[in-house]
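If you are new to this repository, start here. Below is one unmodified record pulled from the training split, so you can see the exact layout before writing a loader.
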Amino acid sequence: MRITSVITSGPQYSPDYRNSNVKSRAFDKEKFRSLFYETFKSMHLDASSGMNAEKMLDKLSKDNGITDRREMAYMLATALWETRVLKSKYVVVRDNNGNVVTDKSGKAKTRSVKTWGAMAPVKEADRGAGRRYFLPVKVKKLPGGRAQVTEQDGDQFIVEINGKYTPKKRGAVRGASPNVAMSQVYKDDDGEELAYYGRGLVQLTWWNNYAKAGAALGMSLELLFHPDLAEDEDIAYKLMSHGMVTGHGFANGRKLSDYFRGDHADYVGARAMVNGSDHAPEIAEMARKLQDILRRSEILPHSQSLNIPKLP
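And here is the target side for that same chain:
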């Protein structure tokens, strides 16, 4: 399957301001990773988190829609917050001298250690339980690349290749109560049963949002037909970037340039792009720290490398 991104433009800044901010699009990855772990050591992040952060930084560096280091920092902070997954692993117990501690049989003792994985696409923890997008729907491919979606209450919709949808019958309402009885229309439908709970670096939910977001990325209805693609790291990044740059989809009309422009930086208010004001101060603080990490790890042209001002 060929996947094409249409993320080619974004917030516009004057050349002078842009050049005083992101002076290059190159970063010392080893330094970035070291600063990342040092800065967020209290979060007990696992080894994969730093590698995932590097991968996202690489995507940010190549994204023509992202022109401001503060935008990079806020996207990284959002991913760090949204994708944390608690993990457990067993490690060998050692004494104060570093020697392996054994039991009576001579077998090495182990203990469970809790760590956090982050910066990679994830599934919504409760799969949307209790919400109107929780129940699976049936999706049937139609001629011309269109689709029919049947919800469990019997409401049906036709989805065009551009992601727009219309009800088949008057009065049909998107979304069904999670406790609704399965209708005969749904039982008889021969479409594929699929679920549209949250997936990605930021949670993409509802079947219509999968359809619309995929179309916006040049994928026609591939995300509707294959919702697990939202967990692909490249597609997940494009979904996040497209939403935050344009304000479309999950961002509900709010975009990065509303919060970061010229001398204006609103790290707290920027949370509205994803989830209202939920944990906005904590994420803002993480973003400020990531902005400093980016500043310190950016590889500058030689003529600019002697003095690196700290941005607001």
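Two things worth knowing about this chain: The longest helix spans residues 280-297. Residues 1-20, 305-312 have pLDDT under 50 and may be disordered.
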